[in-house]
Specification:
This protein is α/β, with parallel strands linked by helices and 171 residues long. 43% of the residues lie in helices and 22% in strands. The chain folds into 2 domains: 127 residues, Rossmann fold; 37 residues. The protein is built from 7 helices and 8 strands, in the order βαβαββαβαββααβα. The strands form 2 sheets. Strands 1, 2, 3, 4, 5 and 6 form a 6-stranded mixed beta sheet that branches. The protein binds flavin mononucleotide.
Length: 171
Amino acid sequence: MKNVVIYTSQTGFTKRYAEWIGEAAEAEAVDLAQAKKLNLRDCDTIILGCHVCADNIVKAKKFAKILRKYAGKKCALFMTGASPAASDRLKESFAKAFSQYPDLRFYYFPAGFNYEKLNGISRFLINLFRKALAAQKDKTEADLAMEKMISSSYDISDKKYAEKMVDDFFR
Ligand SMILES: Cc1cc2nc3c(=O)[nH]c(=O)nc-3n(C[C@H](O)[C@H](O)[C@H](O)COP(=O)(O)O)c2cc1C
């Protein structure tokens, strides 16, 4: 195995992007839960993928562990989210969580939102977030955009973003 994509996905968007990257980069896409069984020593590149949760990186600690274990390999982290672009707060979270890995490349993919596929905890969190946003006075433009984004399910994922990332990463 030369290139591997390790992802975690609840509602399917990150898995879909992992598979698109896998196709474009001739890489195997593996769920994080199965990744422990893999020996990545022979890999040249490791691409990690997860979704954004409240401007934070889901499974950041587990991914940092992989990066530590396989230090020296070419690595990237991609994130999927409901918004069309990465927020400044997300970029800050990335910089903070992976400050020890200055060579780690970061990519953001617009994905969407799928309320129907969320588990109980995520539904609970989203409903809390919806209520908090609804009650908030003096909403910023970002608050209004987020409120609209999580009001119903939608899909803005596109294979072209994965292909562009692969072009950039393997250039
Ligand atoms: C609790 C919760 C918080 C979220 N927070 C954000 C966020 O801060 N920014 C964003 O763009 N999307 C946010 N999302 C949307 C997810 O990141 C998005 O739907 C993602 O693509 C889901 O990936 P998956 O299908 O692989 O699970 C949030 C979703 C949930 C359930």
